Automatic annotation (TrEMBL):
Function: Catalyzes the interconversion of L-alanine and D-alanine. May also act on other amino acids.
Superkingdom of source: Bacteria
Protein name as it appears in the record: Alanine racemase
Catalytic activity annotation: L-alanine = D-alanine
Residues in the signal sequence: none
Cofactor(s) listed: pyridoxal 5'-phosphate
The protein's Enzyme Commission number: 5.1.1.1
Broad EC category: isomerase
List of residues that carry N6-(pyridoxal phosphate)lysine: 35
Active site per the UniProt annotation: 35 (proton acceptor), 252 (proton acceptor)
Binding-site positions, substrate: 130, 300
Length: 362
């Protein structure tokens, strides 16, 4: 039989989370952000759960081609725009909308020969200092785009750096509003954190991490607070057990020493599967739906869990590393990510190719 580790994608949860985004902004249109192969879930696997979105936002042309191949005929937005002039040919052929964030992209559009004008999203650098025109340069960029016959409608977009934190978004909102006052065009400002925490509603909202069952402001709020559901389950099974005496150690580096008699289970999951090596002893896990903890150092192909208080667990018991467990139990990916000192985003995107991933049947 194949190695027992697998990842499940829950399309019902994706649909639920998209509906939660819609409920927060009922009069707005919603982008489903599916960059990074739908945050590691797989575009083709996630599509059915997200097809009620008003559009799909992503990064590269290959992903856009995949969405069109699935039969999607609605809007697709390239969040970083094009990377070289010839990309505009595919934008014309696939009817892609695309961000414009620098002078070079305007020049490429000016030289592009097309029979169909492009819908563009002019990006402002309102304070994050990644992509976009500064507020003082923004109107000049808009005027240059507006003069091009290659450009149809110009929408306005920015991105918040601190929507999930204490600083908030007021300073960026003020910069954006001042620079765009009286400019026509639809607005697209809110990412997941701005939508959930600040309720910013414009013509378009960008639902990203919230779609995938991770709270953008964890640990201040968890997914239960925002009524989100896990969309990915990483699960495996116990393949061996060990009985420890006091002072026995576990794993590489003997980083864990048993304080007394213990029973541990060896799980077919390690950092080569995408489970973080930095997860310390105490990282939560579910065994047969019951909460327990990891023990010792995560190795390439295995990790160990505490079975001392789970006498019925043994070889073959199901281990939920994150996501949905038996009996309705849930282990949010954010909890595991926090133990590893990272974010749920990274764990989703890092599931290794050797792990079988499929759409859940339930």
């Amino acid at each position: 039989m194949p190695r027992p580790i697998e990842a499940l994608v829950h399309t019902d949860a994706l649909a639920h989370n998209l509906e939660r985004a819609r409920a927060r902004a009922p009069d707005c249109r919603s982008w489903a952000v599916i960059k990074a192969n739908a945050y590691g879930h797989g575009i083709e696997r996630a599509y059915e759960g997200l097809r009620a979105a008003d559009g799909f936002a992503l990064l590269d042309l290959a992903e856009a081609e995949r969405v069109r191949a699935l039969g999607w005929r609605g809007p697709i937005l390239l969040l970083e725009g094009v990377f070289e002039p010839r990309d505009l040919e595919l934008c014309s052929r696939l009817d892609l909308w695309h961000a414009v964030h620098c002078d070079e992209q305007i020049a490429w559009l000016a030289a592009h020969k097309t029979h169909r004008p492009h819908r563009v999203f002019l990006k402002m650098n309102s304070g994050m200092n990644r992509l976009g025109f500064t507020p003082t340069a923004f109107r000049g960029a808009w005027a240059r785009l507006d003069a091009l016959p290659q450009v149809d409608e110009i929408s306005l977009i920015t991105h918040f750096s601190d929507a999930d934190g204490e600083r908030g978004i007021a300073h960026q909102l003020a910069a954006f509003d001042a620079a765009t006052r009286d400019l026509p065009g639809e607005r697209c400002l809110s990412n997941s954190a701005a939508l959930l925490r600040h309720g910013v509603k414009n013509d378009w909202v960008r639902a990203g991490i919230l779609l995938y069952g991770s709270a953008p402001d964890f640990p201040e709020h968890d997914i239960a607070h925002w009524d989100l559901q896990p969309t990915m389950t990483l699960r495996s099974r116990i393949i061996a057990t060990q009985t420890l005496a006091a002072s026995d150690t576990v794993g590489y580096g003997s980083s864990f020493t048993a304080p007394g008699p213990m029973r541990v289970g060896v799980v077919a999951c390690g950092y080569a599967d995408g489970y973080p090596r930095l997860c310390p002893t105490g990282t939560p896990a579910l065994v047969d739906g019951q909460r327990t903890r990891t023990i010792g150092r995560v190795s390439m192909d295995m990790l160990e869990v505490d079975l001392t208080d789970l006498p019925a667990a043994g070889i073959g018991s199901e281990v939920t590393l994150w996501g949905r467990g038996p009996g309705g139990a849930v282990l949010a990916i954010d909890e595991v990510a926090r133990a590893a000192g990272t974010l749920g985003y990274e764990l989703m995107c890092a599931v290794a190719p050797r792990v079988t991933m499929r759409v859940a049947e339930d």
